[in-house]
Design brief:
There is one protein chain. This protein is α/β, with parallel strands linked by helices. The chain has ten helices and ten strands. The protein has helices at 36-47, 66-79, 96-104, 117-123, 127-139, 158-165, 196-216, 224-233, 310-315, 318-339, and strands at residues 7-11, 54-58, 84-89, 107-112, 144-150, 171-178, 222-223, 249-252, 257-259, 273-274. It has a ten-stranded mixed sheet. Helix 6 links the parallel strand 5 (144-150) and strand 6. Helix 1 (36-47) runs parallel beside helix 2, helix 6 (158-165) runs parallel beside helix 7 and helix 7 runs parallel beside helix 10 (318-339). The termini are far apart.
Length: 340
């Protein structure tokens, strides 16, 4: 099996120190860790590409294995020095040595935060350690972005999250991921997707808070989805929502099993084979799960919609997938209202 991805996701470990209310992973708190030879074999896949490449470190919680982070960074800088490197972390395990490592290897940092301190504590746990981690990143001069999973529990608190993030000089942006009906989220009594009206109300309040923060401070807190919508409205959105839709993405699990993206990792329906070339197979294609609506004709983004995560379209039902449309429309309408 010959694969040359441009976007490589390495699940360095399945182990995690938190117990999130909606954990998507089918395998959690396993001690299995990716080996050094497997990391090198994975990076050689992107090293053979002539295009721009990115390697993303995730898990589980990748900061539980700092030696593998540094090993991966060292191998990547040797084999593909032009590639970018990022990490997604819950931030609870950050210390000065990790922050120095991030800076040394120019690692792009993403932190998973679902709301202000009380909401973060409820949905993910150990909020105090996460906030301490953000302060360490600030002290070390390492910029970071935040990823927030939207649910009924936190949608009305996004404005407070924005105000909290506005106190950090080195935060660069926030991205919104709608809750996926997968793993623990399927039967959770605590967490569920927001309703349409709640979604509109929460996002409008968040947009107002974002405008306020950027007006009174450094102006550098960007909303990923706002940038995506703006790009699409100018007709500059590519044919695919992400690299996985273009067959340019690959996720490698600690046991060497391959999947088209991090969200599908571990799902046998998307299994693509093993890193050593054995048991190669063709799982479901993410291209078959594009955002498609019958009522798009009245949308201001009709024919210019940026689309949505293909795996989210696969796992979620029709009603919850419509929330993507609600999100884009709120962002577009807010911009029109404020510029009018």
């Amino acid at each position: 099996m010959t694969i040359t991805p441009r976007y490589l996701i390495l699940l360095l470990t399945h182990d995690c120190n938190l117990n999130c209310a909606y954990c998507y992973r089918e395998i959690n708190n396993s001690a299995q860790v990716m080996t050094a030879p497997m990391v090198e074999a994975s990076i050689r896949l992107v090293a053979s590409s002539e295009k721009r490449c990115h390697v993303q470190l995730t898990g589980g919680e990748p900061t539980l294995v700092p030696h593998m982070i540094e090993h991966t960074a060292g191998i990547l800088r040797k084999l593909k020095p032009t590639a970018t490197l990022g990490i997604q972390t819950n931030g609870t395990m950050l210390d000065r040595s990790l922050v120095k490592m991030f800076k040394k290897y120019n690692i792009q940092v993403g932190v998973s935060i679902d709301g202000p301190r009380n909401i973060q504590e409820e949905l993910r746990g150990d909020a105090a350690s996460t906030l301490k981690g953000l302060k360490l990143l600030e002290q070390g001069g390492v910029p970071f972005r935040v990823t927030t999973v939207l649910s009924r529990r936190n949608i009305d608190h996004l404005d407070k999250l924005i105000l909290m993030l506005g106190s950090f000089r080195n935060v660069r942006g926030i991205g919104l991921d709608l809750l996926i009906q997968k793993g623990r989220a399927v039967d959770s009594a605590l967490i569920s997707p927001p309703g349409t009206d709640q979604m509109k109300r929460g996002l409008n309040r968040m947009m107002a808070a974002l405008r306020l923060v950027n007006k009174r401070s450094f102006g550098g807190l960007q909303l990923r989805e706002q940038e995506t919508v703006a790009k699409a409205s100018r007709g500059k959105q590519g044919p695919y929502f992400c690299h996985a839709g273009a067959d340019e993405s690959l996720a490698v699990c600690p046991d060497g099993s391959l999947f088209p993206c991090g969200q599908t990792a571990g799902d046998p329906r998307f299994y693509m084979g093993n890193l050593d070339g054995t048991d190669a197979s063709l799982g479901l294609s993410l291209k078959d799960f594009r955002l498609s609506r019958k009522d798009c004709i009245d949308c201001p983004l009709n024919h210019r919609c940026p689309g949505d995560c293909y795996s989210r379209q696969y796992y979620n039902d029709e009603e919850n997938n419509k929330l993507t449309c609600v999100m884009y429309q709120v962002i577009m309408n807010y911009k029109i209202k404020k510029s009018g």
